[in-house]
C-alpha cells in the first residue's frame, strides 16, 4: 500500500497500462494528472508520446487521431474543459475509438467555480461514452485500468470516462495498492484494433454519413453500449480474481431488511455509509445503494433492486434546471412501470463543492420519513 492522491492513482494506472499517446491541457483541478504523467515520461519511467495542446477540444482531437492509428490513448479534463470537448465525444464514440478520459469533476460557471460537483460528467450522458464514478482513490486507479479492457473489447469499442470528485479525491492522500506493469499486462491484452489508419493500406474514417446510413451506424453504437454491460460485469469479475477487490454496476450496503434506502454516486458514498451505520444502531431500517456505472445505465438490475424498498432517496450532486437531478431522472424512468412503485424523493446536494455532511444525510433520512416533504429538496442551502 502507498499513500496516493487520486491524481497519482490515475496517473500510475495510465503509466502501468502501457499507454502510447497522452494529450494534455491544464485546467484546475485536473492539471496534476497530466503533470505527473509528464514527469513519468521525463524521468524515463514511461515510454509515451506526450502532446501539449492549446485547448481541451484539441486534446480530445489529438487522441482521436492517435487512437484511429491503433494505439492506446489517454487524456483528462474537468468542468468547462469537458464542456469544450463535448463536440468530440460523439465523434470518438461514432468512430468506435476506445479512448479513456479521466474527469476530475468540477462545477460549471457562472459564477466561476473550481470546486466539485458532477454536472460536467453527467452533462455528457448522451454522448456515447461509457461512464464510471469512483468512491475512493483505489477505485479511481482500478477503474482506469478496467476502462481500457472494457472499451477495447471488440464487441464494445467505445470511449470511456472515469470520474473522480475534484479535490475531495484528486488532491487527498489515501492508501492505494497500485497494480504493477506486469500484473496489468496479464489482465489487459495489447490493443489490436481491426480497423486503423495505415499509410500502406489507406482508407477513410469519419466520412459524411447521409440519411441512408446514419441510423444504422447509430444503431450499432447502441448495440455496442448494450454489449458493454456484459463486458463490464466480466471485467469486474476478472479484476476481482487477480486483486481481491470487488466492484459491481450497483453495490448494496446494509440493505437486507431495509425499508428506506438512499442512492449515491461518487465520493459522498463514504459519508453516507457512516450515517447508515449510525441509524442502524438507533434501530432504523435503512440502507445504501451505490451506483458505480452510469452509462450504460443498468436499468433492469436497478429496477430489480429498488423494487424491494418502500422509500428511496436519490442523491444528486448536480442539477438539471427545472426538473431536478439527473440521476433521479434515470432512476424514475426505470421504475415507471412497476405496479407498486416505491416513493422516490430527490435531494440536491454539494453543488459548487459545498461539503455534504453527516448532518445533511441525517436530514435526508428524516425527510424520507416525512410523507409531507417535497419531491425535490435542496439540502444545505442557506436561504
TrEMBL record:
PANTHER family: PYRUVATE-FLAVODOXIN OXIDOREDUCTASE-RELATED. Residues 258-360 form the Pyruvate:ferredoxin oxidoreductase core domain. This is Pyruvate synthase subunit PorA. GO terms for biological process: response to oxidative stress. The keyword Ion transport does not apply. It catalyses: 2 oxidized [2Fe-2S]-[ferredoxin] + pyruvate + CoA = 2 reduced [2Fe-2S]-[ferredoxin] + acetyl-CoA + CO2 + H(+). Gene3D superfamilies: 3.40.50.920, 3.40.50.970. It comes from the Archaea. Residues 13-235 form the Pyruvate flavodoxin/ferredoxin oxidoreductase pyrimidine binding domain. Keywords: Oxidoreductase, Pyruvate. GO terms for molecular function: pyruvate synthase activity. Heterotetramer of one alpha, one beta, one delta and one gamma chain. InterPro entries: PFOR_II (IPR033412), Pyruvate:ferred/Flavod_OxRd (IPR050722), Pyrv_Fd/Flavodoxin_OxRdtase_N (IPR002880), THDP-binding (IPR029061), Transketo_C/PFOR_II (IPR009014). Its EC number is 1.2.7.1.
Amino acid at each position: 500500500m502507498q499513500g496516493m492522491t487520486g491524481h497519482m492513482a490515475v496517473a500510475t494506472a495510465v503509466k502501468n497500462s502501457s499507454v502510447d499517446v497522452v494529450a494534455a491541457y491544464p485546467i484546475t483541478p485536473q492539471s496534476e494528472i497530466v503533470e505527473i504523467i509528464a514527469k513519468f515520461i521525463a524521468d524515463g519511467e514511461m515510454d509515451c508520446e506526450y502532446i501539449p495542446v492549446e485547448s481541451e477540444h484539441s486534446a480530445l482531437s489529438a487522441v482521436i487521431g492517435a487512437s484511429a492509428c491503433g494505439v492506446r490513448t489517454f487524456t483528462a479534463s474537468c468542468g468547462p474543459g469537458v464542456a469544450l470537448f463535448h463536440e468530440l465525444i460523439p465523434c470518438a464514440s461514432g468512430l468506435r475509438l476506445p479512448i479513456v478520459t479521466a474527469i476530475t469533476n468540477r462545477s460549471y460557471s457562472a459564477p466561476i467555480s473550481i470546486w466539485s460537483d458532477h454536472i460536467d460528467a453527467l452533462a455528457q450522458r448522451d454522448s456515447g461514452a461509457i461512464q464510471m464514478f469512483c468512491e475512493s482513490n483505489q477505485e479511481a486507479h482500478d477503474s482506469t485500468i478496467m476502462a481500457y479492457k472494457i472499451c477495447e473489447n471488440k464487441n464494445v469499442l467505445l470511449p470511456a470516462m472515469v470520474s473522480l470528485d475534484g479535490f475531495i479525491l484528486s488532491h487527498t492522500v489515501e492508501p492505494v495498492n497500485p497494480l504493477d506493469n506486469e500484473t496489468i499486462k496479464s489482465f489487459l491484452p495489447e490493443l489490436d484494433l481491426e480497423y486503423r489508419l495505415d499509410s500502406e493500406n489507406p482508407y477513410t474514417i469519419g466520412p459524411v454519413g447521409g440519411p441512408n446510413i446514419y441510423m444504422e451506424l447509430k444503431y450499432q453504437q447502441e448495440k455496442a453500449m448494450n454489449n458493454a454491460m456484459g463486458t463490464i460485469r466480466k471485467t469486474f469479475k476478472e479484476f476481482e480474481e487477480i486483486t481481491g477487490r470487488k466492484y459491481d454496476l450497483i453495490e448494496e450496503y446494509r440493505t437486507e431488511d431495509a425499508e428506506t434506502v438512499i442512492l449515491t454516486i461518487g465520493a459522498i458514498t463514504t459519508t453516507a455509509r457512516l450515517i447508515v451505520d449510525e441509524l442502524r444502531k438507533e434501530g432504523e431500517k435503512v440502507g445504501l445503494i451505490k451506483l458505480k456505472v452510469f452509462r450504460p445505465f443498468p436499468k433492469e438490475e436497478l429496477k430489480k433492486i429498488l423494487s424491494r424498498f418502500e422509500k428511496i432517496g436519490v442523491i444528486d450532486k448536480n442539477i438539471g434546471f427545472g426538473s431536478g437531478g439527473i440521476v433521479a431522472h434515470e432512476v424514475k424512468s426505470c421504475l415507471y412501470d412497476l405496479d407498486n412503485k416505491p416513493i422516490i424523493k430527490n435531494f440536491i446536494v454539494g453543488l459548487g463543492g459545498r461539503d455534504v455532511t453527516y448532518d445533511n444525510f441525517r436530514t435526508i433520512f428524516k425527510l424520507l420519513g416525512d410523507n409531507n416533504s417535497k419531491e425535490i429538496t435542496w439540502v444545505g442551502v442557506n436561504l
